[in-house]
């Protein structure tokens, strides 16, 4: 079981909402909407994805990493490294 499993329905609901936002962006471009309005909606979709990402990072740290640290050894080191790498990717994006 993954750390996000308990909140899976909430994550799916949020992702479906984001999917709708992206479809709305496509319609805005098709309809030649004003550039700034499109950019505003892109910013909103980006922030929504970032919120999902942060929630998943939090769940991963609380569940997967915490469990690995409790077990100790190389598995713990690998999980911490994996989480650090994932956070670094999010910060760079």
Automatic annotation (TrEMBL):
Keywords from the UniProt entry: Copper, Cytoplasm, DNA-binding, Metal-binding, Repressor, Transcription, Transcription regulation
Keyword Membrane: no
Main location: cytoplasm
Origin superkingdom: Bacteria
Database matches in PANTHER family: COPPER-SENSING TRANSCRIPTIONAL REPRESSOR RICR, TRANSCRIPTIONAL REPRESSOR FRMR-RELATED
GO cellular component terms given for this protein: cytoplasm; protein-DNA complex
Keyword Hydrolase annotated: no
Family note: Belongs to the CsoR family.
Coiled coil ranges: none
CDD domains in the record: CsoR-like_DUF156 (cd10148)
Gene3D superfamilies per the UniProt record, alphabetical: Metal-sensitive repressor, helix protomer
Stored InterPro entries: Metal_Tscrpt_repr (IPR003735), Metal_Tscrpt_repr_sf (IPR038390)
Organism of origin: Streptoalloteichus hindustanus
Gene Ontology MF terms in the entry: DNA-binding transcription repressor activity; metal ion binding; transcription cis-regulatory region binding
The protein's name: DNA-binding transcriptional regulator, FrmR family
One Pfam family cited in the UniProt record for this chain: Trns_repr_metal
Subcellular localization: Cytoplasm
